[in-house]
Design goal:
The chain is mainly β and about 130 residues long. It has strands spanning about 15-20, 30-35, 35, 50, 60-65, 70-75, 85, 90, 95-105, 115-125. The protein has no helices and 10 strands.
């Protein structure tokens, strides 16, 4: 006689946002990147974007998002452009995606540029 065990589980997800704090008060540029978004068309958290502090104005900006296979699914050189959860016009699967940001902004003297680089992960839920 064979016995089978069937396990049924319930997973509860909560959405929250993580913010990168700026540990160096002499450097005016900090960033905010949510750790989850829900591109389900309800007009709440439908897009992912990395926000650069209003205290700085990047002279160049490059944000890229990758899936677990290291395929780039989103790229932007505009601070106002956001990822809507699509790749080549089709919705991607729920899961964890890696983002990478490189930006350069002018120091208060207006002459020298400082590089801002960071990376993290974002979870896409529907």
């Amino acid at each position: 006689m064979r016995q089978y065990i069937i396990a049924i589980g319930l997973a509860v997800f909560s959405l929250s946002a993580a913010a990168q704090t700026n540990p160096n008060p002499d450097e005016p540029c900090g960033i905010f990147a949510p750790n989850a978004f829900t591109p389900n068309g309800d007009f709440t958290n439908d897009e992912f974007r990395v926000l650069v502090s209003s205290a700085c104005d990047p002279v160049d900006f490059h944000l890229s998002v990758y899936d677990r296979y290291r395929r780039m699914v989103f790229e932007s050189i505009e601070t106002t452009k956001a990822w809507d959860g699509k790749y080549n016009g089709r919705m991607v699967k729920d899961g964890v995606y890696i983002w990478h940001l490189v930006a350069n902004y002018l120091d208060p003297d207006g002459i020298n540029a400082t590089r801002l680089e960071d990376k993290g992960s974002v979870t896409l839920y529907r």
